[in-house]
Design a protein that fits this description.
121 residues; mainly alpha; Ribosomal Protein S8, Chain: A, domain 1; 2 domains; coiled coil; DUF2810; YibL family ribosome-associated protein
Length: 121
């Protein structure tokens, strides 16, 4: 799964950009050129960090996708298996379930809930 620290940092950076944009708007209304320049620099730096973090996020997703595709067995899960996921995970050691609507599922191009494991299940 994606690191929660990375998600939290992206969220915090996004919040900081929004705050800087509000302050920039206020500086425009006042006509304070030095503050306008400062906030423009801050926004550019924050956007650069967000871009870097998103690249890291994409790289990690690609790595996870590759690792799952290397597992020797994968198949779509039936509705009954999805309904009792706890039982399924207890019976199959090392099972990784990926939903198609998650970032990882979209990265892998999945169309249905799929289980990945080292042994057939």
């Amino acid at each position: 799964m994606m690191s929660t620290n990375l998600k939290q940092e992206l969220h915090q950076l996004s919040n900081r950009i929004e705050a800087a944009k509000r302050k920039l708007q206020a500086a425009h209304e006042r006509g304070d050129q030095s503050m306008i320049d400062k906030f423009n620099e801050d926004i550019a730096a924050l956007e650069k960090r967000i871009g870097s973090n998103k690249k890291t996020q994409t790289r990690k997703l690609g790595h996870q996708s590759h690792n799952l595709n290397q597992m020797s067995f994968k198949r779509a899960l039936t509705k009954a298996e999805q309904a009792d996921m706890g039982k399924l995970k207890k019976s199959v050691r090392g099972l990784v379930v990926v939903h198609p609507m998650t970032k990882l599922g979209k990265e892998m191009g999945l169309k249905e809930v799929t289980g990945f494991a080292a042994k057939k299940f």
